[in-house]
Design brief:
Order of helices and strands: EEHEHHEEEHEHHEEEEHEEEEHHH
Low-confidence stretches: none
Radius of gyration: 22 Å
Strand content: 15-25%
Mean pLDDT: 95
Strand order of the largest sheet: 2-3-13-10-15-8-7-4-6
Number of strands: 15
Largest sheet: 9 strands, mixed
Helix content: 25-40%
CATH architecture of the largest domain: Sandwich
Structural class: alpha+beta
CATH superfamily of the largest domain: Jelly Rolls
CATH topology of the largest domain: Jelly Rolls
Number of domains: 2
Length: 343
């Protein structure tokens, strides 16, 4: 663990570690996994990792040799805030978002690196193909036939509140150190989530400060910790996070770089479950109780149980969107929703 760790982390179970001999072995492990695992040294031979081992300035110089001459989005947090990117007292973000060229951002990091209380500087989820040339090709994991979004995360010491993501995630530390604290999907009630629309990055986050939990405000958090796992990763290590698992992420070094790969096991043309939840808040949540119960039953019938009794009495050629989805029927549903939502 890092120096002066808060006590919340000290007794947590560790994420299991595995070894893989090659891309085929990693592929097999990923396909079989239903829980997180760590692979030590998976990307230790990346040029970016080797540059970061020499120094953080070498890592930045390496990235600058590959960056495109375009504006990057960067978050600048509050000085003296322990790197936590979160809400302020009025539930606005406690950081400001700017657009700047990467050399200018790195010049700022050069000036504050290692200084106590310096404001955190954070570039989140930067598309490697869009913002860099040759970086992905020189530093990537062979994930077989998966269609992945490859992103890079760059910053000083930061704390990112527990959240989850719809896709599966392979997170690879390329420079610095990261600590991940992970929770199974069902622990969302015990993480005391914030709003789903006003969020730092599009996903609801835990309102708990993991460095100073408030027992009165967040009384169920100890129940979440009972199911938590923690992994501290050095440069070259990788962590697999299954879809929808909650993860609290900390950059523990003065300069940190992470590369991650997101992919879904479902076809790209399927809709986002989050959109369905948002629409349900609009259309169902505030109905009278008896009507809400009826809609719960309908969702069970058509969506969650989806048994043969739903369509057995309908001729096969007439089942329309009740039949297994195809790209064409998904497009019909999407067009139908757009027409109705625009009225």
């Amino acid at each position: 663990m890092a120096e002066a760790d808060p006590g919340v982390f000290k007794d947590l179970a560790s994420v299991p570690e595995i070894a893989v001999a090659d891309a085929a072995a990693l592929d097999a492990r990923l396909r079989a996994a239903d829980a997180p695992f760590v692979v030590r040294g998976l990307v230790k031979d990346w040029p970016l990792v080797e540059a970061g081992r020499r120094s953080s300035r070498d890592a930045r110089a390496y990235l600058l040799r590959h960056h495109r001459d375009t504006a990057f989005t960067v978050a600048i947090g509050e000085a003296g805030g322990d790197g936590r990117l979160f809400y302020d007292a009025a539930m606005a973000m406690n950081f400001r978002t700017l657009r700047a060229k990467l050399p200018d951002i790195f010049e700022r990091i050069d000036a504050i690196e290692g200084k106590a209380g310096a404001p955190p500087v954070y570039l989140a989820s930067i598309d490697m193909h869009q913002f860099f040339t040759g970086l992905y090709e020189a530093n990537h994991v062979d994930l077989g036939d998966r269609t992945c979004l490859a992103s890079i995360w760059i910053g000083t010491r930061t704390r990112i509140a527990a959240h989850n993501d719809l896709p599966n995630n392979l997170a690879c530390v390329a420079a610095g150190r990261r600590r991940f604290t992970l929770f199974p999907r069902e622990q969302f009630r015990n993480l005391h989530l914030g709003p789903i629309d006003n969020t730092p990055a599009g996903r609801a986050i835990s309102m708990v400060d993991f460095h100073a939990p408030d027992a009165q405000l967040h009384p169920r958090f100890p129940d979440a910790l009972a199911h938590a796992q923690v992994a501290e990763l050095e440069a070259g290590d990788a962590l697999y996070i299954p879809a929808m698992w909650w993860h609290h992420v900390e950059g523990l070094a003065d300069f940190n770089v992470l590369v991650n790969y997101w992919w879904r096991e479902t076809p790209r043309w399927m809709g986002s479950p989050q959109d369905a939840l948002n629409h349900a808040l609009l259309a169902i949540r505030d109905l009278p109780a008896d009507q809400k119960q009826h809609w719960r039953d309908l969702f069970d019938y058509y969506v969650f149980n989806n048994g043969d009794d739903v369509t057995a009495h309908i001729p096969e050629e007439g089942r329309s969107v009740l039949a297994p989805l195809t790209p064409e029927s998904a497009d019909r549903i999407r067009a139908f929703l757009l027409r109705n939502l625009s009225q």
